[in-house]
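This part of the workshop introduces the protein records we will be handling. A record pairs a protein's sequence with a compact description of its fold. Comparing a sequence with its C-alpha cells is the quickest way to learn the format. The record below serves as our worked example for the rest of this section:
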Amino acid sequence: MVTGCTGGDTEPNYNIVGDNRIKKVFKIPVGNIPDDEIEDYIRKVSEKFKKATQIQPDLDCGIYKNEDTDKDICYFLPTNNENKMHSNYSHVIPNSHFWTDLTQIKYSIDYQIEREKRELEVKDNNTIYVGEPLTKDYILIGLGNSLMRGYKLKQKNKKSYTYIVFESIEDMIEYVQNERWFNLEDFRDIINNTINVGFNLTNGLKMERKEVYKRLDGERDYQDSRKKLRTVPDEEKPIAEWLIYMEHHLKKAKKATYYLNNEETLSRIRIITALGVRAMEIHGCPERKIVEIVDPPKDECSDNNCDCKK
C-alpha cells in the first residue's frame, strides 16, 4: 500500500508503508437463502475452505493453503444473483497496512514533515493537496499489523551503542503511545539511531542482496548443466527468444499467485531472473545511469523594493 504519489525510478519512495500482500475479501454467492440463515452459511463455507489441503479449481473461491491464512487475513461476504462480482474478487481492507523495513517508516515520516511545511501553501486561492497525514493512530496500526504478521526488530551484527534506540516493535509502540515523549521528528531520529546500529524489521524470510545473488548463481549453474539437452546453443538465440522463455515462466508465476502459492511464485521469479542474467551474459547489459537530482537555484529579484526583500 502507498500513502500518496511515488516518485520516478531515480527518486526514493518516501511513502511505501507495506509490501504487496493484501487481505482478501471473497464474495460468496448465497442465492435465495433466507437472510437469517446467511451468516451460518458463510461460516460453514469459510470453515470448509480453511480445512482444504489442496487446490480445488472447481470451487471459484480462495483456498487456504498454509498457516499464515489462519491469521484473520481473509473475509467472506455474501453476494446474490444481482451482484455480478466474481466470488474470487478481492480488495484491500482499510487499516491493513504494515511495514517490512525501518527505512519505510523513516521515509513516511520525512514525507509527513515535508507535508506539514507545505500544507498551508496556497495557489490561486486553493489549498494545495499534499496527501493524507501520517497520524499516531496510523503509525500504531501499522506497527501492530507488522507485529501480528510475525515481524520483529533484529540486530544484524552486534554493536555497542550509547544513544537511544528501539530494540523491539513493542518499544516503538510504547514510545508512540506516550503522550509526553512522542514527537515525530524525535521518533525519526531514534529510528535513524536504530538503523545505524544494525537493527531492522525481519520476518525470517528477508534476505541480503548477496544471499539472493548466491541463489541466482545456483539457478544459473542448474541452467548451464542442461546445455547438452538443447538443440540450439544459447549464443544463437536472439533477445526476443529469451523474452518468450521469461514470459512462459511469468504466466506460471501468475497462476501460482492466483492459488496463493507464494513459494512456487518466488521459485518462478528466481528462474525468470536467472534467464534474464543469461540473456545479458550473451547480449550485454547496459549500465544504469544514475542522474543526480539537484534542486534548481532560487531566482533572486534584483529590485530592492519588491515584496521578497521586505
About this structure: The two ends are 44 Å apart (CA to CA). DSSP finds eight helices and six strands in the chain. Residues 28 and 78 are 5 Å apart (CA to CA). The chain has three domains: 24-79, 102-202, 209-283.
